[in-house]
Design a protein that fits this description.
heterodimer, A: alpha+beta, three-stranded mixed sheet, two-stranded antiparallel sheet, B: mainly alpha, 2 domains, globular
Chain lengths: 244, 148
Protein backbone atom coordinates (compact mmCIF):
# COMPACT_ATOMS: atom_id res chain seq x y z
CA UNK A 1 0.00 0.00 0.00
CA UNK A 2 1.26 3.44 -0.86
CA UNK A 3 1.93 5.95 1.88
CA UNK A 4 -0.96 8.13 0.68
CA UNK A 5 -3.35 5.17 0.54
CA UNK A 6 -2.39 4.13 4.05
CA UNK A 7 -3.04 7.62 5.41
CA UNK A 8 -6.43 7.73 3.69
CA UNK A 9 -7.51 4.44 5.20
CA UNK A 10 -6.19 5.46 8.61
CA UNK A 11 -8.11 8.76 8.49
CA UNK A 12 -11.32 6.98 7.48
CA UNK A 13 -10.91 4.51 10.33
CA UNK A 14 -10.30 7.29 12.83
CA UNK A 15 -13.36 9.25 11.75
CA UNK A 16 -15.68 6.47 12.85
CA UNK A 17 -13.65 5.62 15.91
CA UNK A 18 -14.96 6.06 19.39
CA UNK A 19 -12.97 8.86 21.01
CA UNK A 20 -14.33 8.18 24.44
CA UNK A 21 -17.42 6.38 25.72
CA UNK A 22 -20.36 8.15 24.13
CA UNK A 23 -18.40 10.50 21.87
CA UNK A 24 -17.52 9.92 18.26
CA UNK A 25 -15.76 12.28 15.90
CA UNK A 26 -18.67 12.12 13.49
CA UNK A 27 -21.05 13.24 16.23
CA UNK A 28 -18.89 16.22 17.09
CA UNK A 29 -18.87 17.24 13.42
CA UNK A 30 -22.64 16.96 13.20
CA UNK A 31 -23.19 18.87 16.43
CA UNK A 32 -21.13 21.84 15.22
CA UNK A 33 -23.95 23.92 13.67
CA UNK A 34 -26.29 25.14 16.42
CA UNK A 35 -29.02 22.55 16.60
CA UNK A 36 -32.71 23.03 17.14
CA UNK A 37 -35.31 25.40 15.77
CA UNK A 38 -33.29 28.42 16.89
CA UNK A 39 -34.71 31.86 16.33
CA UNK A 40 -32.90 34.22 14.00
CA UNK A 41 -31.49 36.26 16.88
CA UNK A 42 -30.47 39.90 16.91
CA UNK A 43 -30.69 41.53 13.48
CA UNK A 44 -28.37 44.26 12.26
CA UNK A 45 -31.28 45.75 10.30
CA UNK A 46 -32.82 46.89 13.57
CA UNK A 47 -31.52 49.54 15.93
CA UNK A 48 -33.45 49.73 19.13
CA UNK A 49 -33.77 53.14 20.68
CA UNK A 50 -35.80 55.33 22.96
CA UNK A 51 -37.24 58.80 22.86
CA UNK A 52 -37.89 60.44 26.20
CA UNK A 53 -40.20 63.44 26.17
CA UNK A 54 -39.13 65.40 29.24
CA UNK A 55 -42.13 67.71 28.95
CA UNK A 56 -44.36 64.72 29.77
CA UNK A 57 -42.11 63.22 32.45
CA UNK A 58 -43.68 64.04 35.80
CA UNK A 59 -41.53 65.37 38.60
CA UNK A 60 -41.30 62.90 41.47
CA UNK A 61 -42.74 60.03 39.43
CA UNK A 62 -40.55 56.91 39.58
CA UNK A 63 -42.82 54.41 37.82
CA UNK A 64 -40.13 53.59 35.23
CA UNK A 65 -37.56 52.89 37.95
CA UNK A 66 -39.98 50.67 39.86
CA UNK A 67 -40.98 48.80 36.71
CA UNK A 68 -37.31 48.22 35.82
CA UNK A 69 -36.56 46.88 39.30
CA UNK A 70 -39.55 44.54 39.15
CA UNK A 71 -38.80 43.31 35.64
CA UNK A 72 -35.14 42.63 36.25
CA UNK A 73 -35.24 41.57 39.88
CA UNK A 74 -33.30 44.51 41.30
CA UNK A 75 -33.84 45.53 44.89
CA UNK A 76 -34.71 49.23 45.22
CA UNK A 77 -31.44 51.13 45.66
CA UNK A 78 -30.90 52.37 49.19
CA UNK A 79 -27.17 53.16 49.03
CA UNK A 80 -25.15 54.93 46.36
CA UNK A 81 -23.29 51.69 45.62
CA UNK A 82 -26.44 49.62 45.02
CA UNK A 83 -27.05 48.54 41.42
CA UNK A 84 -29.41 50.78 39.51
CA UNK A 85 -30.21 50.44 35.83
CA UNK A 86 -32.39 53.53 35.46
CA UNK A 87 -32.55 56.60 37.66
CA UNK A 88 -34.63 59.75 37.73
CA UNK A 89 -32.83 63.08 37.80
CA UNK A 90 -34.12 66.62 38.23
CA UNK A 91 -32.26 69.38 36.42
CA UNK A 92 -32.58 73.13 36.69
CA UNK A 93 -31.27 75.91 34.55
CA UNK A 94 -29.95 78.35 37.12
CA UNK A 95 -30.43 81.57 35.11
CA UNK A 96 -34.03 80.99 34.17
CA UNK A 97 -35.12 78.61 36.92
CA UNK A 98 -36.60 76.19 34.38
CA UNK A 99 -36.70 72.64 35.75
CA UNK A 100 -37.02 69.30 34.04
CA UNK A 101 -37.33 65.75 35.25
CA UNK A 102 -35.99 62.86 33.24
CA UNK A 103 -34.87 59.25 33.49
CA UNK A 104 -31.25 58.39 32.63
CA UNK A 105 -30.08 54.91 31.80
CA UNK A 106 -27.60 53.25 29.44
CA UNK A 107 -27.82 55.31 26.25
CA UNK A 108 -26.91 52.34 24.04
CA UNK A 109 -24.34 54.31 22.06
CA UNK A 110 -23.44 53.37 18.52
CA UNK A 111 -19.79 53.92 19.52
CA UNK A 112 -19.84 52.85 23.16
CA UNK A 113 -16.77 53.84 25.21
CA UNK A 114 -17.50 50.98 27.64
CA UNK A 115 -16.88 48.51 24.83
CA UNK A 116 -13.67 50.30 23.80
CA UNK A 117 -12.10 49.99 27.22
CA UNK A 118 -13.23 46.51 28.28
CA UNK A 119 -10.12 44.35 28.70
CA UNK A 120 -11.91 41.01 28.31
CA UNK A 121 -14.48 41.76 25.61
CA UNK A 122 -17.29 41.25 28.11
CA UNK A 123 -18.77 44.64 27.30
CA UNK A 124 -20.17 44.40 23.80
CA UNK A 125 -22.72 45.79 21.38
CA UNK A 126 -25.24 43.43 19.86
CA UNK A 127 -26.12 43.53 16.18
CA UNK A 128 -29.34 45.38 16.99
CA UNK A 129 -27.49 48.15 18.85
CA UNK A 130 -28.07 47.01 22.42
CA UNK A 131 -24.99 47.43 24.61
CA UNK A 132 -24.65 44.59 27.11
CA UNK A 133 -22.27 42.96 29.57
CA UNK A 134 -21.49 39.28 29.06
CA UNK A 135 -21.21 38.21 32.68
CA UNK A 136 -19.48 35.00 31.66
CA UNK A 137 -16.39 37.02 30.79
CA UNK A 138 -16.78 40.11 33.01
CA UNK A 139 -14.01 40.22 35.61
CA UNK A 140 -15.50 43.13 37.53
CA UNK A 141 -12.67 45.59 36.86
CA UNK A 142 -15.18 48.46 36.48
CA UNK A 143 -13.17 50.19 33.78
CA UNK A 144 -16.41 50.52 31.77
CA UNK A 145 -18.05 52.31 34.68
CA UNK A 146 -15.30 54.91 34.57
CA UNK A 147 -15.49 55.21 30.79
CA UNK A 148 -19.26 55.74 30.66
CA UNK A 149 -20.09 59.48 30.57
CA UNK A 150 -23.68 58.78 31.66
CA UNK A 151 -22.87 56.90 34.91
CA UNK A 152 -25.15 54.21 33.57
CA UNK A 153 -23.37 51.14 34.88
CA UNK A 154 -23.41 49.60 38.33
CA UNK A 155 -21.28 47.01 40.07
CA UNK A 156 -22.85 44.25 42.11
CA UNK A 157 -21.06 44.23 45.46
CA UNK A 158 -23.18 41.77 47.39
CA UNK A 159 -24.09 38.13 46.72
CA UNK A 160 -27.54 37.87 45.16
CA UNK A 161 -30.29 35.30 45.53
CA UNK A 162 -33.74 34.95 43.98
CA UNK A 163 -32.71 36.29 40.59
CA UNK A 164 -35.27 36.42 37.82
CA UNK A 165 -35.19 33.45 35.51
CA UNK A 166 -34.66 35.58 32.40
CA UNK A 167 -32.25 38.01 34.02
CA UNK A 168 -29.25 36.23 35.53
CA UNK A 169 -27.13 38.60 37.61
CA UNK A 170 -24.59 38.17 40.35
CA UNK A 171 -21.86 39.50 42.56
CA UNK A 172 -18.63 40.67 40.97
CA UNK A 173 -20.03 41.79 37.62
CA UNK A 174 -20.90 45.13 36.13
CA UNK A 175 -24.40 45.54 34.77
CA UNK A 176 -26.67 48.15 33.23
CA UNK A 177 -29.90 48.64 31.32
CA UNK A 178 -30.38 45.85 28.77
CA UNK A 179 -33.35 47.49 26.99
CA UNK A 180 -35.23 44.44 28.36
CA UNK A 181 -33.38 42.28 25.86
CA UNK A 182 -35.05 39.12 27.15
CA UNK A 183 -38.42 40.57 26.20
CA UNK A 184 -37.29 41.75 22.77
CA UNK A 185 -35.80 38.35 21.95
CA UNK A 186 -39.12 36.76 22.76
CA UNK A 187 -40.89 39.05 20.31
CA UNK A 188 -42.09 41.72 22.72
CA UNK A 189 -41.87 45.23 21.24
CA UNK A 190 -41.55 47.32 24.36
CA UNK A 191 -39.55 47.63 27.57
CA UNK A 192 -40.74 47.53 31.17
CA UNK A 193 -40.09 51.26 31.71
CA UNK A 194 -41.85 52.38 28.51
CA UNK A 195 -44.80 50.14 29.31
CA UNK A 196 -45.09 51.44 32.87
CA UNK A 197 -44.83 55.05 31.70
CA UNK A 198 -47.67 54.68 29.22
CA UNK A 199 -49.75 52.72 31.72
CA UNK A 200 -49.34 55.56 34.21
CA UNK A 201 -50.74 57.87 31.52
CA UNK A 202 -47.58 59.90 30.96
CA UNK A 203 -46.41 58.33 27.72
CA UNK A 204 -43.06 60.06 28.12
CA UNK A 205 -41.03 57.07 26.89
CA UNK A 206 -41.33 55.86 23.31
CA UNK A 207 -39.45 52.70 22.49
CA UNK A 208 -38.87 51.43 18.97
CA UNK A 209 -36.70 50.73 15.97
CA UNK A 210 -34.69 53.76 14.88
CA UNK A 211 -33.94 52.12 11.52
CA UNK A 212 -37.60 51.65 10.62
CA UNK A 213 -38.81 54.93 9.02
CA UNK A 214 -42.43 54.04 9.76
CA UNK A 215 -41.96 53.33 13.49
CA UNK A 216 -43.46 55.76 16.00
CA UNK A 217 -40.08 56.73 17.35
CA UNK A 218 -38.74 57.56 13.87
CA UNK A 219 -41.81 59.65 13.05
CA UNK A 220 -41.55 61.53 16.34
CA UNK A 221 -37.82 62.13 15.89
CA UNK A 222 -38.45 63.48 12.40
CA UNK A 223 -41.23 65.79 13.56
CA UNK A 224 -39.61 67.46 16.56
CA UNK A 225 -36.20 68.50 17.79
CA UNK A 226 -34.47 66.02 20.03
CA UNK A 227 -31.26 66.14 22.03
CA UNK A 228 -28.52 63.64 22.68
CA UNK A 229 -26.99 63.77 26.13
CA UNK A 230 -23.36 64.84 25.79
CA UNK A 231 -23.72 65.13 22.02
CA UNK A 232 -20.22 66.67 22.01
CA UNK A 233 -18.76 63.22 22.61
CA UNK A 234 -20.26 62.00 19.32
CA UNK A 235 -21.23 58.60 20.69
CA UNK A 236 -24.50 58.52 18.74
CA UNK A 237 -26.67 57.32 21.63
CA UNK A 238 -29.80 55.27 20.94
CA UNK A 239 -31.67 57.19 23.65
CA UNK A 240 -32.82 60.69 22.66
CA UNK A 241 -34.46 63.40 24.74
CA UNK A 242 -37.10 65.92 23.80
CA UNK A 243 -37.76 69.24 25.53
CA UNK A 244 -34.43 69.61 27.26
CA UNK B 1 -14.07 25.56 36.11
CA UNK B 2 -11.39 23.34 37.76
CA UNK B 3 -11.19 19.82 36.37
CA UNK B 4 -11.29 17.02 38.90
CA UNK B 5 -7.84 15.95 39.98
CA UNK B 6 -7.03 12.43 38.94
CA UNK B 7 -5.81 10.05 41.63
CA UNK B 8 -4.56 7.45 39.17
CA UNK B 9 -1.23 9.23 38.70
CA UNK B 10 -0.07 8.66 42.29
CA UNK B 11 3.38 7.15 42.46
CA UNK B 12 3.84 3.76 44.12
CA UNK B 13 5.58 3.67 47.49
CA UNK B 14 9.32 3.19 47.39
CA UNK B 15 12.14 5.71 47.18
CA UNK B 16 15.26 6.10 45.08
CA UNK B 17 17.49 4.62 47.82
CA UNK B 18 15.72 1.24 47.71
CA UNK B 19 17.40 -1.61 45.95
CA UNK B 20 15.91 -2.86 42.70
CA UNK B 21 14.41 -6.05 44.16
CA UNK B 22 12.62 -4.25 46.99
CA UNK B 23 11.33 -1.57 44.66
CA UNK B 24 10.09 -4.22 42.26
CA UNK B 25 8.10 -6.03 44.93
CA UNK B 26 6.68 -2.75 46.19
CA UNK B 27 5.54 -1.90 42.68
CA UNK B 28 3.90 -5.27 42.13
CA UNK B 29 2.16 -5.05 45.53
CA UNK B 30 0.87 -1.62 44.60
CA UNK B 31 -0.35 -2.88 41.24
CA UNK B 32 -2.30 -5.70 42.92
CA UNK B 33 -3.76 -3.17 45.38
CA UNK B 34 -4.67 -0.79 42.56
CA UNK B 35 -6.32 -3.57 40.59
CA UNK B 36 -8.45 -4.65 43.55
CA UNK B 37 -9.44 -1.31 45.03
CA UNK B 38 -11.75 0.14 42.35
CA UNK B 39 -14.18 -2.76 42.75
CA UNK B 40 -14.23 -2.15 46.50
CA UNK B 41 -15.01 1.55 45.95
CA UNK B 42 -17.68 0.84 43.38
CA UNK B 43 -19.82 -1.35 45.60
CA UNK B 44 -20.22 1.23 48.34
CA UNK B 45 -16.79 1.22 49.95
CA UNK B 46 -15.05 4.21 51.49
CA UNK B 47 -16.15 6.72 48.86
CA UNK B 48 -19.90 7.04 48.52
CA UNK B 49 -21.12 7.28 44.94
CA UNK B 50 -23.37 10.24 44.11
CA UNK B 51 -27.05 9.58 44.46
CA UNK B 52 -28.57 11.24 41.41
CA UNK B 53 -32.12 12.43 41.70
CA UNK B 54 -34.26 11.17 38.83
CA UNK B 55 -35.61 13.74 36.37
CA UNK B 56 -39.29 14.63 36.34
CA UNK B 57 -41.27 11.59 35.21
CA UNK B 58 -42.34 11.55 31.58
CA UNK B 59 -39.57 13.85 30.35
CA UNK B 60 -36.95 13.04 27.73
CA UNK B 61 -33.44 14.48 27.76
CA UNK B 62 -32.07 16.18 24.61
CA UNK B 63 -29.22 13.64 24.42
CA UNK B 64 -28.56 10.16 25.81
CA UNK B 65 -27.46 10.15 29.45
CA UNK B 66 -23.86 9.11 28.73
CA UNK B 67 -23.45 11.96 26.22
CA UNK B 68 -24.88 14.48 28.67
CA UNK B 69 -22.68 13.25 31.51
CA UNK B 70 -19.58 13.79 29.45
CA UNK B 71 -20.45 16.84 27.35
CA UNK B 72 -23.17 18.89 29.07
CA UNK B 73 -20.72 21.66 29.90
CA UNK B 74 -19.66 22.01 26.27
CA UNK B 75 -23.24 22.15 25.05
CA UNK B 76 -24.09 24.84 27.59
CA UNK B 77 -20.95 26.86 27.06
CA UNK B 78 -21.33 26.86 23.29
CA UNK B 79 -24.95 27.89 23.36
CA UNK B 80 -24.59 30.59 26.01
CA UNK B 81 -22.47 32.69 23.65
CA UNK B 82 -25.09 32.40 20.92
CA UNK B 83 -27.74 33.47 23.41
CA UNK B 84 -25.98 36.32 25.16
CA UNK B 85 -24.20 37.78 22.14
CA UNK B 86 -26.42 36.72 19.26
CA UNK B 87 -29.79 36.93 20.97
CA UNK B 88 -30.67 33.38 19.89
CA UNK B 89 -33.05 32.00 22.49
CA UNK B 90 -34.82 28.71 22.86
CA UNK B 91 -32.16 26.56 21.14
CA UNK B 92 -31.63 22.91 21.97
CA UNK B 93 -29.32 23.00 25.01
CA UNK B 94 -30.93 25.40 27.42
CA UNK B 95 -30.02 25.71 31.08
CA UNK B 96 -33.64 26.58 31.77
CA UNK B 97 -34.73 23.31 30.18
CA UNK B 98 -32.20 21.40 32.31
CA UNK B 99 -33.63 22.97 35.43
CA UNK B 100 -37.23 22.32 34.43
CA UNK B 101 -36.71 18.55 34.30
CA UNK B 102 -34.02 18.07 36.92
CA UNK B 103 -35.17 20.36 39.73
CA UNK B 104 -35.84 18.44 42.92
CA UNK B 105 -39.45 17.77 43.83
CA UNK B 106 -38.55 18.69 47.42
CA UNK B 107 -37.02 22.16 47.03
CA UNK B 108 -37.64 22.87 43.31
CA UNK B 109 -33.90 23.41 42.79
CA UNK B 110 -30.95 21.74 41.05
CA UNK B 111 -28.31 23.29 43.29
CA UNK B 112 -29.60 24.25 46.72
CA UNK B 113 -29.15 21.06 48.69
CA UNK B 114 -26.33 18.49 48.65
CA UNK B 115 -28.70 15.94 47.16
CA UNK B 116 -29.87 18.18 44.29
CA UNK B 117 -29.12 17.09 40.74
CA UNK B 118 -26.14 19.30 39.84
CA UNK B 119 -24.56 19.39 43.29
CA UNK B 120 -24.65 15.64 43.95
CA UNK B 121 -22.31 14.87 41.04
CA UNK B 122 -20.23 18.01 41.18
CA UNK B 123 -19.36 17.61 44.84
CA UNK B 124 -18.40 13.98 44.14
CA UNK B 125 -16.18 15.06 41.26
CA UNK B 126 -14.82 18.04 43.26
CA UNK B 127 -15.79 20.45 40.49
CA UNK B 128 -16.99 23.81 41.71
CA UNK B 129 -19.49 25.43 39.38
CA UNK B 130 -20.55 29.04 39.59
CA UNK B 131 -23.53 28.88 37.22
CA UNK B 132 -25.98 29.38 40.03
CA UNK B 133 -24.34 32.45 41.52
CA UNK B 134 -26.09 34.35 38.73
CA UNK B 135 -28.64 31.96 37.25
CA UNK B 136 -31.53 30.86 39.38
CA UNK B 137 -31.43 27.16 40.17
CA UNK B 138 -35.14 26.92 40.75
CA UNK B 139 -37.89 25.75 38.45
CA UNK B 140 -40.91 28.06 38.61
CA UNK B 141 -43.24 25.14 37.86
CA UNK B 142 -42.12 23.18 40.90
CA UNK B 143 -41.49 26.19 43.12
CA UNK B 144 -45.23 26.66 43.67
CA UNK B 145 -45.76 23.61 45.84
CA UNK B 146 -42.24 22.87 47.01
CA UNK B 147 -41.01 23.40 50.54
CA UNK B 148 -37.72 25.13 51.09
Amino acid sequence: MSRRGFLGVAAAGLAGAVLAPGIQLIEIAQAAPAAGPAAAGASAKVRWGMLIDTTKCAEGCTDCVTACNTENGLAPATRSTDPQWIRKIEIKEIKTGRTASLPVMCQHCADPPCVDVCPTGASFKRADGIVLVDRHSCIGCRYCMMACPYKARSFVHEPLTEQKRDVPRGKGCVESCTLCVHRLDQGDKTTACAEACSQAGHGAIVFGDLNDPASEISLRLRAATSTQLRADLRLDPGVRYQGL
Amino acid sequence: MVPPRSTSGASPPGGRHQRTGEAGSAVSAWLVWAALMPSAYADGGRTPLPVIEPATAGTQCVEPAEVMRRSHMRFLEHQRDDTVRGGVRGAKYSLKACIDCHASAKNASVARAETNFCVSCHSYAAVRIDCFECHTSKSPKLAQGATR
